[in-house]
Each structure stands twice: as structure tokens, then as C-alpha cells.
Amino acid sequence: MHVSCGSKITKLTITSFIAEQCMTSISTQVQVSLGDRSYPIFIGSGELKRTDLNAFVGGQKVLVVTNKTIAPLYLDQIEQQLAGKQVDRVILDDGEKYKNLDTLNLIFDQLIANHHDRKTTLVALGGGVIGDMTGFAAACYQRGVPFIQIPTTLLAQVDSSVGGKTAVNHAMGKNMIGAFYQPQAVVIDTDTLTTLPDREFAAGLAEVIKYGLIIDSDFFVWLENNIGSLLGRDSQTLAYAIELSCKNKARIVAEDETEQGIRAILNLGHTFGHAIETFQHYQQWLHGEAVAAGMVMAAQLSAIAGILPQAEVTRLIQLLQTCSLPVAPPRDMRPDDFLRLMVRDKKVLDGQLRLVLLQGIGHAQVTDQFSMDHLNQALDLACQSG
Ligand code: NAD
Ligand code: GLY
Hints:
It is built from 14 helices and eleven strands. The chain is α/β, with parallel strands linked by helices. It has two domains: 2-10 and 198-385, Dehydroquinate synthase-like, alpha domain; 25-195, Rossmann fold. Helix 5 (128-140) links the parallel strand 5 (121-126) and strand 6. The termini are far apart. Bound molecules: nicotinamide-adenine-dinucleotide and glycine. Residues 159, 163, 165, 263, 266-267 line the site of glycine. Glycine is lined by residues 159, 163, 165, 263, 266-267.
């Protein structure tokens, strides 16, 4: 049974009454409203058993895309849920460094070799790497086939599986080749997080904290007050944090599906973070770790620009540190490395770099109106503290 508390929420401001209602839900559904591309996000403990995946599969064939770490943990369960269909599988190498066109071709090889036609459905079983690649493969295969997201990392559950951004990396830039392409459904089983390593779990918390920072100050306060039980992976606390994150994201995506404006605030800290990931050839820090340091850099720039009180930067740093997340860039990165890599950011328009800045916790803006002097000061400060 799905118990939706979405209808009770008319604003992103969450009262404690509503929080209490949601905390008692067994299972929650959040809707991403995009006209004929709308879809549900099912969230809860035991959701993989509860959700009828076949309801989202139009044809007779399915290709499950996963990796060598996740397959032994969850693939059997997914295949059982798809009983009655021809289920093929492709099990990829694990890691961000495999999120590229060569790996994408392995998915196409399976689809073509097994005669999948336009009625096939792809199922992404894994974290953001699997989700982004599977979504992009679905967008391209025979000019577009349906796909389902089954995210198994916290980061994928609160961010990458929702909103239809799909991509692979290029050696010169993160997520440079991709498409906006929405799934049929997102199925989030919080039980899958029990097998997630601590470091990956913390990386996901960076994106959870991001929602509080950019759009939902009440959620930020809730996170400050509940970070202990979140880190303890309490099932109900987790489900609530995931639900709030998905609601915030769904609302932004419904307003601006293809990032013509407001959606860019979801990239708070990402311009700095992507520079870190590219600098490290996607092989050292996790995406969420790079975003954590990037969010601090964006906050520090906002403070230097005089639009964010320093006390709010301190609150952010404290919350991230409680999660054992980095709050400064890697020691071997210099301001020039950032400047060189940031010009390739996807928010650059007509050669002009745009950044997401904070005007307060819960209030973000995308702007190209920042001074290079302030940016240089922020980079110097961050690289000194790294
Ligand atoms: P990931 O997909 O690499 O997963 C992290 C690690 O956890 C991997 O080793 C994976 O095999 C393992 N894993 C996954 N689920 C597990 C489980 N339940 N138990 C044990 N191990 C498990 O990384 P991620 O953090 O999920 O995603 C990062 C990617 O997401 C990046 O490529 C980033 O660019 C992308 N991303 C995309 C969007 C978007 O909007 N599309 C948003 C944010 C991030
Ligand atoms: N993760 C950024 C976005 O979905 O727009």
C-alpha cells in the first residue's frame, strides 16, 4: 500500500505536524509532474518487493543494467519481480571511470545481440553512474525506449534518478555527452542502503544537505537536528529525508525541466566540484565529496561578495563535518586549476561563467554578476585551507 503525504504539502515549508505525518508512512509516493512525461517515485522500506515493476514495462523484453558490485546483492530480486518477461542483463565494471562512451556501447551490444526492439524497457539498477548511463542508453537506443530507475545509493535516491538528466563523461569534462530523458518510474527501496559503504552514504548526504541550502531552510534545520539518526541510517528518518529531497527536486524539475533557469540552482557547488572530479580524472574523490567541498566554496564566495552572513557558512561547514565530508578542495589543487577547468562548465553561456550563490540558507541564485576579484579571493581561501 502506498500512503501519499504529498497532497498535504502545499509549500516547501514543512511544519512539524506534517513531518510527523510523513515519518509514520510505510511507503510514500512523490510525483514528478511533467505532462505526458510525468512519473511516480515510490519511496519506502521493502519497496522492491512492494512495487509491481511489470506495471511499467510495456513490451515483453527488459534489459537490466547493473554493475559487478550490485548484481550479487539485488539482481535476483529484480529478475524475480520481472517474472513473465524476457529479462536480459548487462553487468558493467564498477566506477565513475567507466562512465564513458565505451561502456555505453556494451549496453547497445546487449540490446542489439538480443534483438531488443522499440518496445523494450531498460532497468537501471545501481547508483548514479549506472542510472546516468542507462538513461542515456535508453534515450539513444532506436531513438528512445522507456526505462525505469532503481537507485541503490543515497545519492542516486535523492538526486540522480530524479529529473531526467542522463549522461556519460568525456576525458575533458564531466557529463559532457548526454540528454534530458525522463524514466517511467523511480523505485527507491531504503533497505538497499543497508549494504552501502559509509563513505558512499556520506557522499549522498551532501546532496541531501544541498536541498536545504538552495530552497528549504526548514529542511536544513531539520537536518541539523536529525543528523545523528540519519547517520545511524534509521529507516524512517532516512525515508523522510529522501522524500523531502525528492519533493524539492521534483518541484524544481517540474518548473524547469531542461535547465533554462531555476533548475541550475540544483548545481550549487557543482562547478567547483566538477573541476575537482575532472582534475582527479574521476578516480579519487566521490561526486558527493567534491560537491560538499564545492558547496563550501560557493558559500565562501557568497560571503566574500557580502550576500551571505559568515555564520551561515559556519553552519554549513559544521553540518558537513558531522557527516565526515570534505569542506575544502584537495591539497594539490591550486586556484589556477579551478579557473582552467571551470570554463568548461555546462553553465557557461556565450563564454560567460555562471555560478550558484547563496543569499541565505534556503535561498540560492544563479548569476554571472560576480566579481572576478571575489572569485579569486574565494579560490585562494579554499586552496589555503585544503
Ligand atoms: P556510483 O554509482 O558510483 O555508486 C557508488 C558505489 O556504490 C559504487 O561502487 C556502486 O557499485 C556501489 N553501490 C551502489 N549501490 C550499492 C548498495 N546498495 N550497496 C553496496 N554498494 C552499492 O555513485 P553515486 O554516488 O551513486 O552516483 C554518482 C554519479 O551520479 C556521478 O556520475 C554523478 O555525475 C551522477 N549524478 C547525476 C545526477 C543527475 O541528475 N543525473 C545528479 C547527481 C549525480
Ligand atoms: N543534479 C542536478 C540536476 O538534476 O539538475
